[in-house]
Amino acid sequence: MSGAAPVGGRTAGGTMAARAGTALCRDCLSRAPAAVRGTSLRCRACGSPRVLSHPELDNLSIAHIDCDAFYASVEKRDNPELVDRPLIVGGGTRGVVSTCCYIARIKGVRSAMPMFKARELCPDAVVIKPDMAKYARVGRDIRERMRALTPLVEPLSIDEAFLDLTGTERLHHASPAESLARFARSIEEEVGVTVSVGLAPNKFLAKIASDLDKPRGFSVIGAAEAVSFLAEQPIGLIWGVGKVFQQKLAADGLTTIGQLQKMEAVDLARRYGAMGLRLASLAHGRDDRPVSATRETKSVSSETTFDTDISDVARLRAILRRLSEEVSTRLKAADLAGRTVTLKLKTPDFRIITRSRSLADPTQLADRIFRTGEDLLKAAVEGRRFRLIGIGVSELTDGTRADPEDLVDPAAGQRARAERAIDALRSKFGKQAVELGLTKAGDPRRQRDR
Amino acid sequence: MKVTLERTDLLKSLTHVHRVVERRNTIPILSNVLLRADGGQLLLKATDLDLEISEKVAALVEQPGATTVPAHMIYDIVRKLPEGAQVALETSSDNATLEIRAGRSRFALQMLPETDFPDITAGEFTHRFTLASRDLRSLIDATQFAISTEETRYYLNGIYMHSVASDGGDRLRAVATDGHRLARAEIPAPNGSVGMPGIIVPRKTVGEIQKLLEAPDAEAAIEISETKIRIMTGDVILTSKLIDGTFPDYGRVIPQNNDKEMLVERDEFKAAVDRVSTISSERGRAVKLAISEGRMILTVVNPDSGSATEELAIDYDSDPLEIGFNSRYLLEITGQLRGDTACFRLADAGAPTLIQDKGVEDALYVLMPMRV
Q1: CA-CA distance, B281 to B279, in Å (whole number)?
Q2: Residue B284: per-residue pLDDT
């Protein structure tokens, strides 16, 4: 083992000898061998320090692409005044940080942090409410651009995806590394946000790689160095090892991936079951999961955090109805239906309560999702206050089997037809064209109007 | 308490009562079975607060008394004792454990006091009647499979029993439905059942009643009030709460004007449905019946695995029709039919279909088609 560290555009350039044909300038895309200047590499063509050099550079084709501080980057793009200010995207005075820019991160602000804490850490931060529709639009644009690189795009979320570029050299007249560098540059120039790229022999390593050099990064982990690189890393780096499992492993004296590498797969399997087997492979950087463009949706849900805690059941119902409609709209758009409805509530002390109920048949109707959720809500409220409510459906099937006619409840069929009529009106005249009275129930603004 | 009895007798009674006890209980006493020895008999009783089963069994009572011990545990112990063994049950002198002795085996089970054991207050029963086990079984067997498991519509989670006046005299009727299919069975109303309130017997109770009706010729005595049902057969007494709800007006559901009649050999049809549905992987996959004069073609298409087709000769002379059904539901219904020939009354591909034994009106089934 050469002991070579994975090469990040910025992190490890100095340790690598530049070799002809293995260097790539991320700014001018030149393949000229890099020049060594002091401790860092420079592009011979344009002088940029953002030079990639790795012995396996042109042999790797699995990539993980992740947008940098996505929501914040989009907001900064649209409002240049924000560029050099700390920016937090998240829900109002309450709620949590969705994304924060890198300036805010310097102060210790993190995603999923409660907003009050973020404000404490970074009082001068600009806080913007998330505009999900806009981010979804930009995300879709980026995804379309990924699909132009390869059909094998496996989206993980709105702003990250795995890509398998195997066999695209002839198409793009470029190695996967070159295509990816060109892609990163074009996203910056044409979309206006930055991305970080991880290139590796498989998904597991690619995901780790993309995180090594954020933001605006490009890291490569080759097959040859995977084992030695992983050896020093903490076990928590392995995808799927959460806090609890990490604690369990730590209790057994296991903290680094190197320790796992020395263990037999059989022993790990005996101790930790299927997860143990996974650990044994992943610890050696082995991961044969394919990049799959048709990743199955497991559930569809929607939730909202309130500005102030709510105990009024009428208001909770109104919000629940609106959320049910959102879930239903997404199910209908994807032609999916779910058999299990889950209600989620969060108490002021951040305790999460979930209640589920299975239906006789899968549904995609807002009416059925709401009625089930409403039932669960009635039983769960117990006069308490809540800071969040959410509803979702799981156990998904395709929409053709959703909501069959019922022998004993003809009213359900009528409501289903009414809902489809409302959908048709909304698609023609907009979402506000038809609204249910109950979504306005308990709304303080409405009471003032009267 | 000190009592000795045959293992076989004790096991039989424990088998009947222990099933009521839920495996996981938050209230400790509900995990226990009550044992009360008195006057040459041992009484065993178990409850889940909605359903209670008690049984008396002959025993040699040396010292009367009562206690409670974990039901599943004592059942497992007695089950594993050798056949023909004499089992002695004796409470310890400090009243903390029940000692179970048989041959050279000896167990001591922790007890909970008898006084903590809850009683379902039966209240006044307004209607009483007796009928043969066989008849009660036939009502249950024909309808049980259609009981809904959907929590939202709790009033469908049982069998609806009531008496109806018809041309052929009063009938005792059982109905169950889950919205996809409906099963209705009836027998001539036994004396005393006429005018009884319509009751919904919960799913779990139905299952237990069914298991208690072992001997077809035995008599079962039934007592009914607005909120409870009690069934006595042999030495067993089952008392259960009823579902507090309104069963839907099922009469509207039963098609009256389905004019297309199709006759098919029941066993042939059942076997064919079973065969073609092998192809379907998920539950609830549809089988398509293409019905035309003299023949039916059954088709199942599963986009993931392939397709299956089978042709059957039928008796049919109306307009051709294609209709889809859930194959499992078809199998369950044809499994309940008794005659050689099944009669389907159809309207169109979207309308409920009536299925019966040809020429027999005692049981009928309504099945909602599926989109195919």
Answers
A1: 6
A2: 57
